[in-house]
């Protein structure tokens, strides 16, 4: 297999744009001739990617822990802005490398060593999908008494079909859902401010409680950071001329505004109806604006879950293909992509059917652990891209098991292991907490610790890396890979 292998199995018709209806690429490099789209298209992908029902619960945590509404809202906004900062920098890698997000881990961890983060990412995709299937099932049962099983299967079928169509459909659907959610959120926000149903205690800036504030801040930050494993999957078809700055800001604004705004719906709903379940609190909060709007708000927030399901299936497929390629070289085809989508769908649906009433609570704890696992990876990947190698990579060598990046990269693996271990004393998972977290009264600052330690150690061990010699190889390794790039020019040199 080469990085530019193309599927010969696509039987879909080609639209007037000249691009096939069904996406033919998967983990392989996207040549410049196939790059298309506008950089602002990243805004709706991540606005709609965050503005949905599953995000609402994230904004209710501070209130549940005893914080008042105004300080929980401030923590939501600041935490979202902080976590998205790292996620958006990953997004800029897509146009520069023309590769999916997770396959870009090979230069830091090695051809085989990258399996460490891929297995974790794959678990995340399957778990998130099962979580959303259950959430949709409970919502449809509440609204129309639809059997859970029908909801689970229907959600999986729709998500798989849309993921088969792929990248271009995801972008188009996200734009329409952004229009829908923007209107719904404006009506809710303006209406709830006009009605002003809040008590003085809920809006008292003098009633600051540190523990609920920090828990809410880092929960929102980690939630946004978790998108890092997806993000350049949906920017990799953009031309590299869009630049780092513009791709960063369009991603950052879309995810921060969509995520924080939707979390604030959860903050308001929990503040007004602290004893109600998620669905009931949203309906009741919406009905404060005007009678019947609560149901409209709920339905609007469910629709983007279809797109999120598609993102999970799509990203899970790419990660599974990357994992398979590390074990045994494969030629990426549409048929293999469809097969991996079916595997992801079967796994998530089995989990949804096997869940009980405690699943959602257990899954929230599971997501905390996944946040711990991805924090060191984020630090290492970004430091490598922006500081160590400065965007200079060879596409061919990324797909070469005996290439310059090696099968196992001790620098990345060591930095990851030490970074993760440094987080454990500060960890809080349910009622369990590390000694440092217990000493601080249950505060979880693992994200800060993991980012600083992993990034710092990786910078230190990379002092022995001969970047100059590696770059000399990179500048010629991809000759002929892309006909639109002159020989002797690195495909990624423009990121320096």
Automatic annotation (TrEMBL):
GO terms for molecular function: transmembrane transporter activity. The keyword Electron transport does not apply. The chain crosses the membrane at residues 42-63, 69-89, 109-131, 151-170, 177-195, 207-227, 248-273, 293-314, 334-354, 366-387, 408-427, 439-461. CDD domains: SLC-NCS1sbd_CobB-like. Its main location: membrane. Gene3D superfamilies: Hydantoin permease (1.10.4160.10). Keywords: Membrane, Transmembrane, Transmembrane helix, Transport. It is a multi-pass membrane protein. It is found in: Membrane. InterPro entries: Pur-cyt_permease, Pur-cyt_permease_Fcy2/21/22. It comes from the Bacteria. One of its GO terms (cellular component) is plasma membrane. Pfam families: Transp_cyt_pur (PF02133). Belongs to the purine-cytosine permease (2.A.39) family. This is Cytosine permease.
């Amino acid at each position: 297999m080469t990085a530019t292998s193309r599927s010969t199995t696509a039987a879909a018709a080609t639209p007037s744009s000249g691009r096939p209806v069904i996406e033919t690429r998967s983990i392989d490099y996207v040549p410049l001739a196939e790059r298309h789209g506008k950089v602002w298209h990243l805004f709706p992908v991540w606005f709609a990617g965050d503005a949905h029902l599953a995000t609402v619960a994230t904004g209710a945590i501070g209130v549940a822990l005893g914080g008042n509404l105004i300080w929980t809202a401030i923590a939501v906004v600041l935490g979202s802005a902080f976590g998205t900062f790292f996620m958006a920098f990953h997004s800029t890698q897509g146009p520069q490398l023309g590769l999916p997000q997770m396959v870009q881990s090979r230069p830091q961890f090695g051809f085989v060593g990258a399996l460490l983060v891929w297995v974790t990412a794959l678990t995340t995709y399957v778990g998130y999908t099962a979580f959303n299937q259950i959430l949709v099932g409970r919502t449809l049962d509440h609204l129309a008494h639809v059997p859970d099983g029908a909801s689970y299967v229907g959600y999986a079928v729709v998500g798989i079909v849309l993921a088969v169509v792929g990248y271009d459909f995801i972008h188009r659907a996200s734009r329409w859902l952004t229009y829908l959610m923007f209107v719904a959120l404006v009506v809710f926000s303006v209406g709830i401010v006009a009605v002003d149903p809040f008590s003085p205690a809920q809006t008292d800036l003098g009633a600051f409680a540190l523990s609920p504030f920090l828990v809410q801040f880092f929960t929102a930050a980690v939630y946004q950071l978790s998108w890092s494993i997806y993000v350049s999957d949906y920017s990799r078809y953009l031309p590299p001329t869009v630049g780092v700055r513009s791709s960063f800001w369009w991603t950052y604004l879309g995810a921060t505004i969509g995520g924080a705004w939707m979390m604030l719906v959860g903050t308001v709903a929990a503040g007004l109806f602290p004893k109600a379940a998620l669905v009931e609190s949203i309906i009741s909060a919406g009905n404060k604006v005007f009678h019947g709007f609560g149901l409209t708000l709920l339905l609007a927030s469910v629709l983007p879950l279809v797109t999120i399901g598609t993102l999970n299936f799509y990203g899970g497929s790419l990660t599974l293909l990357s994992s398979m390629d590390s074990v045994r070289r494969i030629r990426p085809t549409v048929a293999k992509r469809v097969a991996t989508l079916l595997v992801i769908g079967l796994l998530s649906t089995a989990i949804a059917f096997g869940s009980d009433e405690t699943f959602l609570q257990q899954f929230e704890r599971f997501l905390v652990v996944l946040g711990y696992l991805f924090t060191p990876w984020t630090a290492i990947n970004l430091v490598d891209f922006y500081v160590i190698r400065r965007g200079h990579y060879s596409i061919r060598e990324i797909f070469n098991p005996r290439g310059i990046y090696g099968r196992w990269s001790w620098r990345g693996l060591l930095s990851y292991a030490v970074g993760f271990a440094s987080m454990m004393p500060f960890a809080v998972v349910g009622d369990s907490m590390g000694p440092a977290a217990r000493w601080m009264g249950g505060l979880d600052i693992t994200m800060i610790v993991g980012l600083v330690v992993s990034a710092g150690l990786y910078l230190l061990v990379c002092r022995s890396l001969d970047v100059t010699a590696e770059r000399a190889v990179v500048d010629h390794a991809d000759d002929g890979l892309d006909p639109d790039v002159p020989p002797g020019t690195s495909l990624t040199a423009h990121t320096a």
